[in-house]
Structures are given as C-alpha cells and as structure tokens.
Amino acid sequence: SPKRDLIALANRAGEVLLHRLANFQRVWSLPPNENTGKEVTALAWRPDGKILAFGLTDTKRIILCDVEKPESLHSFSVDSSITYMHWMEVTEESSVLTSFYNAEDESNLLLPKLPALPKNYSTTAKIFSEEKSDEIMKLLGDVRLNALVLGGSSGFIEIYAYGMFKIATVTGVAGSCRGLCLSSDLKSLSVITEIRGSSDSEAEITYFQASKLDTSLLSSYLPEVTRMARKFTHISTLLQYIKLSLTCMCEAWEEILMQMDSRLTKFVQEKNTTTSVQDEFMQLLLWGKASLELQALLMNQLTVKGLKKLGQSIESSYSSIQKLVISHLQSGSEALLYHLSELKGMALWKQKYESLGLDASGIEEAITAVGSFILKANELLQVIDSSMKNFKAFFRWLYVAMLRMSEDHVLPELNKMTQKDITFVADFLTEHFNEAPELYNRKGKYFNVERVGQYLKDEDDDLVSPPNTEGNQWFNFLKNSTHLKESPLLFPYYPAKSLHFVKRQMEGVIDQCLQKPADVIGKSVRQAVCMCLYKTSQSEDSTPQLFKLPFLWNDKTSNIHYVLFTILENSISKIYILRRHTDTSRSVSNGILGVDFGSFLSNSINDSSDSRCYSCLDAHFYDDETVTVVLKESVEQEEKERVLAQLPLSSVYTDEDQDREFIWDSTKRLDEQNGEISTRTVFLENQWRVLENMKAQYVSVNGIRKVSCVLSSNLRHVRVFEMDVEDDGEVEEEEEEETT
Questions:
Q1: Rg (CA), the chain
Q2: Which residues form the Anaphase-promoting complex subunit 4 C-terminal half WD40 domain (predicted)?
C-alpha cells in the first residue's frame, strides 16, 4: 500500500488477503464469491491507499474493494482478461485545476443528501447503508485526478479515471500486456507486451512507447478531463445507488403476497360448480351466504389466522416498498437528472468539451430515459397506494364474513359496513377477481390480485395488469394532439413495462453516452516507439510465472520512463536498464545500459572470487534513485546464495554516458545486438544482505514506507524487510520475520 503498512496478496484459491507488514497479522480476506470470481490476476492500490482494485480473469471483472472491510464498493466488466493494472495519480498543477480542486462541489449544496439504505436487507446494500461512513465519498476519493490503467490479453488497454469511468480505450498495440506505465503528466504511456507467434514458439517481449501526439488530448485538456470524469463518477455511483434501492424493494416484496393468487387458482381447478369465483364472492358480499366450496376454501385453506397474517404482510411489505421509492429511488433519480443536466451544459461548451467526445444529443437521450424511470416509479407509488386501500377494505369485509361463518362473536365496530364500503369492495372484486385463462398459460395462475410484484420482476415480459388509463383526461389530450406527441419536453411513458425494464433501458442509454469520450480519446493515441526487446526462453525452471520483469517505472520529477529487464547471456540473467524520456521531441539521451555486479560476498577460502557472477532474478524500483534487486550466485557450488541488494542509479549512470548513445538497429531484437551495449560493473558496498534458507525469487517494494517484501520461488514464503534501518552503519537492512 502506498500510504499504510499493508500488503495485499492474492492466492491460487482466488482469495484476496490483506496483511499488516509489522507482524504479518491478517487484516481481512475476501474469499471468491459469485459476484467476483476465482482467478485474481492483477492487483493495484489507489494512490491514496483507501481502495484496492483487483482484476479477475475468469469473470473478466474489476472489483474495487474497501481497505477497511472486505466488501466490493464498485465493480465493472471488461472485454478481455486482465493481466496487468497500474493506478497512478496526476501530479500536474495548473491554476484552473487548483481552483476546481478547492471549489466546493456544488451538488452538495443544491441536492439533499442521499438517505442511507436500510440495513435490514441483504449484503448487497451494505455499501450505502451506514449513515456516517460516507461510502460514496470514499468511492469518489480525492478530487485530484487519478487513473487506473488496465492491460489485458490481445492488446487490450483501457484507462479509467478515478478507477470508475473509462476515459480511453487504446488500440493498435499487439500482444498481451506485461507492464504498463502512464506518466504523471499524462503525456505518455509505456507498454510492454508479450507476443506469441505460434503455440510452441518462444514469446517475444516488445516495448511500446505510445506517446500520444503530444497527448494533446489528455494532458492539454486536463482540467476538462478531470471535471468530466468527476461528473461521470457521480453518475455511476448514483446508478449503483438506484440499483441497490431496487434490490431492497425486491427483497421487501415477499412471496406470501402471492398466496391469494395461488389459493384462488387452486380453487378454480378443484371446484365442480359452474359459477365463477367472482360470482361466488359477490354472492357472499350481497346475500352474506357462501357456497360450501367457498366456505371450505376460506375456513380450511385460508383460515381466520392466515387471513390476518396475509393482511399484515401486505401492509408491512407495501409500506416499506413505498418508503424506498419515495426516499431512495426518487432522490437518487433526481440527483441523476441534476448531474446529467450539468453534463449537457458542459457538452454544449463546444470549444472545451467537443474534442473530448462529449455529445449533447446523447446526454439529452439519457435525461429523457431518467425521466421515464421517474414516471414509472410514480406509477408504482399510485399502484401501491390504491392496492393498500383495496386490500384493507377487502380483508376487513372478508374477516367479518369468516367470523360469521364460524359463528364467532363479531365486534360491533367491525360490523358497520356502509353502502360506500360495499360498493368499494364490489368494484375491487369486479376488477381483480375475473378469471383470465390466457394468464394461466403465461404465468400458471388464473388471477392477478396482487399488482405490485409485477413491477419488480426483472424480465422483458409486459406487465400482466398494466394500469388502466381509460378516461384519463391527460392521456386523451395527448392522444388527440399532434404536436405534443413528439415534444422533447415530455418524457416517453411505457405503460406496459416493469420498473426493472425501464431501469435497464436507462442504464443502457447512460452507458452509451458515457462510452463515447473513451473511443474519441483512445483514437487520439499514437504510437511513437516500438522496440523488440528479447525472446523469453522456455527452458527456465518451471517456476510459476509471476509477470514481474520486465518492470516499468516513471520518474515523476524528470518524466523519464525506465524499463528493467534481464537477458540470458551464457546462462547468466544480466539486468539491463532502458531509459527513455517521455517527451519524444527532447534530445535527452535515451540510454540503455547493462549492469554487472562485482563480487561482494567476501569468501575467504575461495580466492578465485573474481569468477563469481550474479544472475538477476527480479528487480523493482525502490524510489527514483534506487533499484532493489534479488540476485543469485551463478557458481558451480551446491549452495547458491540469494541476495537482496539496493542498486543506486547514480553508480550506473555516470557523466561519461552522455556521449556514448547506443544506436538502435530497429530491424533486430535487442538480445541480438547486446554485444554493443555498454555495461557498468557495480560494486555494492554495504547495501545488501544474504537471504538465508530461502529460494527468493520475486521482490515487491515500497520506497515511501521503506519496506520490501520477498517471495520465494514456490510462492509459499514471504519475508518482509525494513530497508533503511540505522544500525551503526553496518548492515542497512534488517530482516523482520518470515511467514508461510
């Protein structure tokens, strides 16, 4: 983690684990579940250390996870399996940006705070359910722009602003991605890919530096990109909020509410009289007498107790759905309308936003779709309202009738039924209790007394009983007016569709309008350099490939990209450092250097100490001045010691480099011309230590926290080291402990 003493690991079982560095105590683990996946192939920390992102190959999803507790805050799907992730922060400063960073987000002042989702629903709703922990703000994080760069197989590269909103889809890179690095001024993107010819041939590692036509777009429109991305993250959080509110509503709707429909259907199938169910109930209402069959249905199947329970469930269920619609769905969709309208305003400011691909007409469609969704939510409210009234009256009447049948005492206040009440119940019976054979073929039941559930079903079918709009003056007025039908001011209304259907449609339209900038910005990326580095040898030990090397690093202060890689020469992996300036027009030397390590393991018995060579197993930039390496002795002895060492760049790049620039022959791979590359022999004074009893293979470091973490070749042992420990100047690194 860039900010705290934490390390994130993923294992073969698909778990993501978070450990403290100090005593390697586990903070949490996130086991694979149906929302994530089993094969974690890439991990990345958000620069502020509050969110961990991980990519899954089997489900092709990216999950953003809260560092405090193991739950997904946001997730999205991608088109390819992810092989590498890099999350960087933009350090560029400008007065426009600073004023934007400092300005209070207006939506906080204008929009009411989104109410927290009720806690008593299932786990999906956790994220927005706690009043205090502003989960939404945690998800949005700092206003300063940060970008999550994803690389995958077959040349897939995408850049997500704030880790949520896609701002670029980069095309034209071949091979599957092994390393990525976006410079902190957004001027240049370096990529290392692995190109496999055929299945058995050796893979070729290639370095691309895609300098984006002076990335005119991302870097020169940085304030606009930041502002646009910020809006988009607001919009995607709101979409998630609405989705979760809807999930809560579906949970509030219980299966018991279907009881009435299923009991009546069974009654139709079993009865042998010709009178319809509707007539049976009508006779009970008017004459107070029920046929024996209806009596059996009411007394034996429904029972007085069951009727009471059904009445209570309907009341509690409907009122909680009603609350969710009013407080969550409506406030969420109003906030969505606000942000989309702001976005439309931005899109109309063409000189600033047009070249980023913001398109006002697309946003206009999104606004309309949100409007339709709000209309549908209002319709649901009306249906709930009338259903509650109807059921209350109906159950009250039926309860009295059933008490009379069982010859129980009926309380006098229950006995009062005015003419108005009777008419009300009669209307309810005529409207809801007519048999519908065609419905039986569709849904396996003859009745649809319960009208709310159909709105919450996630299916494309039309509603079973759409609202009755006959005689509605507004509808008639619209029907007869030619001009109003096409008016952009009126939101289209889908009377026969469920709430879920309209929501899916809204998400689709919004996705569509958020998609365009990514394509436009992605197309502006041009490839500046493409170099073939080397072929990977298949003969290496069968150690599992963690794609650590080649490693990319971006020096933020001088905007230089470094690439570390090793090439096998006479059975020694020799490390090379390739240095390129991100601004390709600069005449600064783009150097490439090989590094030999002079012998430094003082071995008194063996005098032929010059013959010792070291193979480099893994290397990682510790900070802008130092590289941390894991070395292995290549000497014909049984005990090959592994060494962890710090290699200062100052000892590699000395002043005389400036004159001798390596002339690159672009027709050949680098490993075919490495004889001409100048090599530095470096003697490490005291910046190293032997790793006892451990076949170290990989290293991961954090120069800010001054720690490094070494992983063994069988991936089962982890050791954590503190790097700059003042110990009387003797040994600079102190081992902490090992965990298996």
A1: 34
A2: 552-722
